[in-house]
Design a protein that fits this description.
Elements: H1 2-23, H2 29-33, H3 39-44, E1 46-50, H4 70-76, H5 89-98, H6 107-110, H7 118-127, E2 132-138, H8 169-177, E3 183-189, H9 196-200, H10 202-221, E4 225-229, H11 236-239, H12 241-250, E5 259-260, E6 276-279, E7 291-296, H13 315-327, E8 330-336, H14 346-362, E9 376-378, H15 397-400, E10 412-418, E11 422-427, E12 433-436, E13 447-449, E14 454-461, E15 464-468, E16 485-490
């Protein structure tokens, strides 16, 4: 009996050792890339990006540019984005509004966040149907939304606990969001435009500023997502990204749950890391890993008071963008930009609630789905498929691909998703007959219109499956149902 106990004891040690070794990721891309991406992320499909910081005080840049880049536009007297710019537009605005001697760093004291109510934010996110959020804990200006000693190594306080708001904004929002079913993520910029060490000694910047700072962020708040950015000026080896990610996956408090993106060094995007990211692009090519498209409701990520109603995408446009992305296996990370007092602009709140209302009816065709054999079906009419060429692609491209085509172009008339129980067909606009080419369901299938719950009839005609839609009666539908109509075909 004693002998058997000894054998069992050593077997337990062996099993524990194997288990531990399986979880021990090495600082190589081969090892780090082998870590599975937590399943919740691939099922989530819809997240909310939040750009918020001292740049929310001036909240102004020319249309077609990022307002969160205010400091860089101001000090470099340059601009890039969608449009033709002289480069000095922000510098001229700043001089007119604040004067010659008002530094960007003075905005820290004006970033009061006095109207910020984290519980109200969290409730809005939950109603939007989003399954995760990503808050900018620190953008390229270096201002942190949490108390951090490295933020002050310029020689003055540059964090929200000591300047302006006098609050731990990351901590407050994390606590509120974690009371809901929404996952909490944090954006973190690796570099800072004008940090003295970044400008003069990048190795010290990495060792003395970046690495201890990002580890402090993870350790204090245990985020579900760590969204890196600002990596493009330096190779991953110089950022020591592989060593950091090995720590993150093996030792950190977030090691079991953390999801990361792919922005960990020059040339790394869409090659290594966690999920792949796109920015103001269309549907992705066939990535081998989960992916996510990020974009704003207008153009800027940070709040830009220069953007008008016409610059914001309609709720139908946003829903169709979501459907387009999900049909190709991606997630949409849709940005909002609160103002400096902590209020989310009303139009942004409205858009989130409109998306949430649509998802409350049609979410079964979105959440937890994967691509079907085809992501979408182009119409037979038209000379060619519409492929926009603009670098930062406005959201309205999806309207050109669906309901408002350019002359001579085809349209995406149907989108497809599926789960283990059903195939889903999502129709951008109402039609009496939905014709799915090269599809044959099982003989016992049932078909349902998710907007009303009505059973639908389908008939096989050659290789096409034709679904007959009911007579359109406006009273049966909510206003948000018109964004897109989802049909469930049970397998």
């Amino acid at each position: 009996m004693k002998k058997h106990r000894i054998v069992i004891f050593f077997l337990m040690i062996l099993v524990c050792g194997i288990s531990k070794s399986q979880e021990n990721y090495k600082p190589t891309w081969e090892s780090l890339d082998s870590r599975p991406i937590p399943g919740w992320f691939q099922d989530a499909k819809f997240g909310i990006f939040i750009h918020w910081g001292p740049y929310s005080v001036p909240a102004w840049t020319p249309k077609g540019t990022y307002s969160e880049w205010y400091q860089y536009w101001l000090q470099s007297k340059s601009l890039f984005g969608n449009g033709n710019f002289k480069g000095d537009e922000v510098a001229n605005f700043h001089k007119r509004t604040y004067g010659d001697h008002f530094s960007y760093y003075n905005f820290g004291e004006l970033f009061k966040a006095d109207l910020f109510n984290p519980d109200e934010w969290a409730q809005l996110f939950e109603k939007s149907g989003a399954k995760y959020i990503v808050l900018t804990s620190k953008h390229h200006d270096g201002f942190t939304l949490w108390p951090n000693k490295e933020a002050n190594d310029r020689g003055f306080a540059w964090n929200s606990m000591e300047v302006g708001a006098k609050r731990d904004l990351v901590g407050e929002l994390s606590s509120a969001v974690k009371k809901t079913g929404v996952k909490m993520g944090l954006y973190y910029s690796l570099y800072e435009w004008y940090h003295p060490l970044w400008l003069n000694d990048k190795e010290r910047f990495v060792d003395e500023h970046y690495l201890p700072q990002v580890k402090d962020l993870v350790t204090k708040y245990n985020p579900d997502v760590l969204w890196a950015d600002g990596e493009w000026d330096m190779e991953a080896d110089k950022w020591k990204s592989k060593e950091f990610l090995a720590w993150l996956f093996n030792e950190s408090v977030a090691k079991d749950n953390i999801v990361i993106n792919d922005r960990w060094g020059k040339g790394i995007r869409k090659h290594h890391g966690g999920y792949f990211t796109t920015e103001y692009e269309a549907e992705a090519p066939e990535f081998k890993r989960p992916w996510e498209e990020c974009r704003g409701m207008g153009f800027s990520f940070g709040y830009n008071q220069n953007e008008d109603f016409e610059d914001y995408n309609s709720p139908k446009t946003l829903v169709l963008n979501l459907v387009n992305i999900v049909s190709t296996g991606g997630n949409l990370l849709l940005d909002i930009g609160p103002d400096a007092r902590g209020s989310i602009p009303v139009i942004m709140q409205e858009r989130l609630l409109q998306i949430g209302e649509w998802l409350s009816t049609n979410g079964e065709a979105i959440y937890g789905t994967k691509p079907w054999k085809n992501s979408f079906q182009w119409s037979l009419k038209g000379e060619k498929n519409y492929k926009p060429k603009q670098h930062y692609l406005g959201g309205d491209f999806i309207l050109k691909q669906t309901i408002d085509p350019e002359p001579g172009y085809a349209v995406k008339e149907l989108f497809f998703t599926q789960n283990s129980n059903a195939n889903f067909v999502i129709v951008p606009e109402w039609r009496e007959l939905v014709i799915i080419r090269n599809f044959k369901p099982s003989s016992s299938t049932t078909i349902t219109l998710l907007a009303t719950g009505e059973p639908l009839k389908g008939v096989q005609k050659g290789s096409d499956f034709i679904i007959e839609m009911p007579v359109y009666l406006p009273k049966k539908f909510k206003e948000t149902d018109d964004y897109a109509y989802a049909i469930k075909i049970n397998k």
